[in-house]
Design goal:
About 50% of the residues lie in helices and about 0% in strands. Helix 2 packs across helix 6 and helix 3 runs antiparallel to helix 9. The radius of gyration is 18 Å and the shape is globular. The two termini are about 30 Å apart.
Length: about 160
Amino acid sequence: MIEKDPQKRPSAPSVLIHPFFWSLEKQLHFFQDVSDRIEKEPLDGPIVKRLERGGRDVVKLDWREHISMPLQTDLRKFRSYKGKSVRDLLRALRNKKHHYRELPSEVQETLGNVPDDFVRYFTSRFPHLLLHTYLAMQLCGAERLFQPYYVQEAAEPTTSAET
């Protein structure tokens, strides 16, 4: 956006659809949709491989060490999660959102209100999660589920002088 050459700058519409400008609610929907989509994908498949590539920086080596103790304890009650996996971080986020009302009050207080505080809880601890996930999931951008997140900018209309 700060490129000196105007021709190299992104257009305003393309900037406005960038994930950086998404509402917290849209971010949460995206994280949930990604987690649902990759739930049954093979670990060695192209989508999961792309998501996990470079994920070490996203999860800060082991994401479980960067969440609150009440949340760590609650996560261990139901399943095991791999701390080095972006996929498992997204799964934990999705599962806690889906079962938010069932969470102990201490965990709910830690996570805050859904969607805003809840999303901020995760994105403040893992600031690269949204953009990393967005770039990785471009593989699925043409799928109906992901089209709202990967809307392609319409071609600029031509003026009568150009035709």
